Amino acid sequence: MKPKSFDVVIAGGGLTGPTLAVALADAGLKVALADSEPIETRLAPNFDGRASAISAANWRQWRALGLIDRLQPDAQPIRDILVTDGPAPGASARTPLPVFLGFSSDSLGGDPDEPMGWMLENRHIRAALSAALVERKVKTFAPAAVRSATVDGPVARVILADGVALEAPLVVGADGRRSMVREAAGIATYGWNYDQCGVVATVSLEHDHEGVAHEYFLPGGPFAILPLTSQRASLVWSDQRDRARALVQASPEAFEAHLARRFGDALGRPRLDGNRMQFPLSLQMAETMIGVRTALVGDAAHAVHPIAGQGLNLGLKDVAALAEVIVEARRIGEDWGSDLVLERYARWRRFDAAALATATDLFTRLFSNDHPVLRLIRGAGLAAINRAGPAKRLFVREAAGLLGETPRLLRGETL
Amino acid sequence: MSVAASSIDPAEVARFSAVADQWWDAHGKFAPLHKFNPIRLGLIREQALARFSRNGKKVRPFEGLRLLDIGCGGGLLCEPMTRLGFSVTGVDASERNIGVARVHAERGGLAIDYRASTAEALIEAAETPFDVVLNMEVIEHVADPAAYLADCSRLLAPGGLMIVATLNRTLRSLAFAKIGAEYVLGWLPKGAHDWRKFLTPDELIAMARGPGLSVDGPFGVSYDPLADRWSRSDDCGINYMIAVRREA
């Protein structure tokens, strides 16, 4: 079969792949998107019951891509983030820590009235992205898993499960932690599993949350209440694997009783509203984000906590950087699938990905533990952060400098 | 006239493949040139869009225009210029460079007319003048820059645009380009440049002006060692470019 020719082929119809497709299509590129799932499956309300905390920077990106009108009605602004260590009172800091909400540095430089982030149920994000793809006439192949990806001179050739062949100077793997594109490019991964699962549930709250996100470091492990629209919240915590499974399968009444027992006053009297889910906690990093005529974004490159959209924020930042690198290269006549060009993307993202993985790992180990000494360290740490607000902001700014210039999309500008 | 990709001698492919890999390796010995390239490409594009009133939103805005790259090396400028729509001729005095450039263009499926030749030889052969002439980092290597520039101008069609890029003769360029790039950073072969041959922007502009020829610029570019990247700047103390326009 004669291959169909594109400027970029993207594998993966999750949240990062379609965002990249929209960004590139807006810049005039001819994009193909291939996904292993049928489109209707991805869009079914119960396909993905998770909610994501979208950082201010990534919200700006979606605004630049024209997605916000569709997302706004279902988006809950996060006005404040309260972090509290355990049942011991006093060590409370109004500072986002990168446990469930990993976007402290993204909020810098924005409008002071701009929310710190937005809570959105993934199903709404999927619907908005899907509509945007249709509007931009992005050619979507689904259900069509990537069977193989090979490089032939100036093009990468992707063969789909149904035998359709696509070719383009660049193939992007946005196909998740078990990325076929990554495997085809021979890019190895490293990482480990934590003996824990993330548990996610949506609940209706007794009282208005006023847009405040709470993170508690309780003896049983860290726990977050993330505000959703209509006086609901997304609850996120980590638990031992078998306990997590039992919780997800328990009756709603038993589940609610468990919540009250475990999290007590933090929660009031929540009523279960929708699905409960568990996700194994693991960390998986690709050894490199680029290969020959190949770039990886999102979980294909670095899979961190699969909860609360922390990994999603990282993936969307990949998208902003990669889209800008591609569009700039094309503007000046460069081969955007060449090593020369992809190297710029890898350099731009290297520090951010490594930093988040390290922080995630550290915090998981530090906070998922009720050892008294660790408690003491945590308490001291939170109190210190509380006092050292300006110093921390300075540090975060310094660290942000290592990231180089902020991609234009994350500043809310179009490409 | 373009060289059909298949016309390349297989022996030539074998001979130049390894060198071509070096030329185009992001981490190889031409890495500094690759880092510098986007800023040059952006400036050429911008000048040419303005000169020929072309639409920058198009993928190939320069369709129908002929471009000559003098001292084209491995084709670092010729290939992007071809993708932007120019019909490109690349000349280089070095047979080896032309071999490298041909092999790489063939791999990329790009039709580029590469010739082991010089500006002088093109004039002697009564080559049709070009809409755009690129004269990038060559003039600092020639014995008689004034005569050389005059020759290059003769290859410029009426209404045409020539971009000349070179190094300024300042103490900073001596420190940066000569001592820094050649000896400290090891970017360039030692002895690659004779600093005394460098021209100041005023000298170059005076040389480039002539009947029917006017000059824009100079445009500076500067290197940020911390970010390891080049950017446009008003500072012409080290590298700079000028745009020479021939009257229509």
General description of the model:
- The complex is a heterodimer of chains A (415) and B (248).
- With 415 residues, chain A is an alpha/beta fold.
- Helix content of chain A is 36%, strand content 28%.
- Chain A has a domain at 4-74 and 118-190 and 283-369 and 390-411: 3-Layer(bba) Sandwich (FAD/NAD(P)-binding domain).
- Chain A has helices at residues 16-26, 39-43, 56-64, 68-71, 122-135, 180-184, 241-249, 252-263, 310-331, 339-367, 372-387, 389-402; strands at residues 4-5, 8-11, 31-34, 51-55, 76-78, 80-85, 92-93, 117-121, 139-141, 146-152, 155-160, 165-168, 170-173, 189-204, 212-218, 221-228, 232-240, 271-286, 290-291, 294-296, 302-303.
- An eight-stranded mixed beta sheet of chain A has the order 7-6-15-16-17-14-18-21. Chain A has a six-stranded mixed beta sheet with strand order 9-3-2-13-20-19.
- In chain A, a hairpin with a 4-residue loop joins strand 11 and strand 12 (165-168).
- Chain A is globular.
- Mean pLDDT of chain A is 82; it is low at 88-99, 102-109 and 384-402.
- By secondary structure, chain B is of the alpha/beta class.
- Chain B has a single domain (5-169, 195-246), classed as Vaccinia Virus protein VP39 (Rossmann fold), CATH 3.40.50.150.
- Chain B has eight helices and eight strands.
- Chain B has helices at 10-23, 31-51, 78-83, 95-107, 119-124, 145-154, 171-184, 201-208; strands spanning 66-70, 87-92, 113-116, 130-136, 156-167, 213-224, 229-233, 239-246.
- In chain B, strand 6 (213-224) and strand 7 (229-233) form a beta hairpin.
- Classes of the chains: A alpha/beta (415), B alpha/beta (248).
- The A-B interface holds A 28, 153-154, 328-335, 338-340, 343, 404 and B 24-26, 34, 37-38, 41-42, 45, 56-57, 59, 79-84, 107-109, 227.
